[in-house]
Amino acid sequence: MNALLKSLFAIVIVVTALGCGGDDQSRTERDAEIQKKMDEAVQREGKLYQGMRKGVEEMEKKVLEDQGKQ
User: What is the DSSP letter of 8?
Assistant: First the structure.
């Protein structure tokens, strides 16, 4: 009985180890997809930052013009 449990345990470990390896191609595809999403997010953040910066510059310009009129 003990030998049966040990062999069963060994089989479970081997099957688990083989299953954990995964497919390298799918892992590579998943990594590429993650990188693509991260690049897109960085581009969106950059555009958002530029828009905010432009808005602040316009507000500063308007304030300076208003102060010049007074």
Answer: H
